[in-house]
Amino acid sequence: VSSRMSSLGAFTLRSAARVNSALLASRVAPRLSVPLRAATTLNDGANKTHDHSSHFKYERFFAAGMMPLIPAAYFVHGPVMDAALTVALTLHIHWGIQGVIADYARPYVIGQTAAKAARVSAYIISALLLAGLLHFNTNDVGITKAFEMVFSL
């Protein structure tokens, strides 16, 4: 029995030495493949089944396309420019609100009911913004003329 125990002790020491040397080698050696996503068992609402990278790309292209729209709105006044600016600003602000809600109003953090209410409130805020800007464009001077009046002060 004692020879068996000594061989078991030697086996565990050899195994521990191999594991230790493997850990040291893995710290020094460069990684050849890095996993793109880490598996997790935590269900915090962050694991998504859809790939949203194309949506993010479209948002960036849309934001870049808005850059000439803002200065052009200063020089070109009229209902078409007001409508274009209204739709562009509302969509841009809606995507921003949705991004904040997706980051900070997860069901795991604030609860399922509050997270659903936050998502619904993003659409309500965007609809009210669009309705308010369209009302301002049709019943008042419009966004472009209002900006000109502010800049003339």
Automatic annotation (TrEMBL):
It is a multi-pass membrane protein. GO terms for molecular function: heme binding; metal ion binding; ubiquinone binding. InterPro entries: CybS (IPR007992), SQR/QFR_C/D (IPR034804). Heme b binds at H92. Coiled coil: none annotated. GO terms for biological process: mitochondrial electron transport, succinate to ubiquinone; tricarboxylic acid cycle. GO terms for cellular component: mitochondrial inner membrane. The keyword Methyltransferase does not apply. It comes from the Eukaryota. A ubiquinone binds at Y104. The keyword Iron applies. It is found in: Mitochondrion inner membrane. Keywords: Electron transport, Heme, Iron, Membrane, Metal-binding, Mitochondrion, Mitochondrion inner membrane, Transit peptide, Transmembrane, Transmembrane helix, Transport, Tricarboxylic acid cycle. SUPFAM superfamilies: Fumarate reductase respiratory complex transmembrane subunits. Belongs to the CybS family. Membrane-anchoring subunit of succinate dehydrogenase (SDH) that is involved in complex II of the mitochondrial electron transport chain and is responsible for transferring electrons from succinate to ubiquinone (coenzyme Q). This is Succinate dehydrogenase [ubiquinone] cytochrome b small subunit. It comes from Pristionchus fissidentatus.
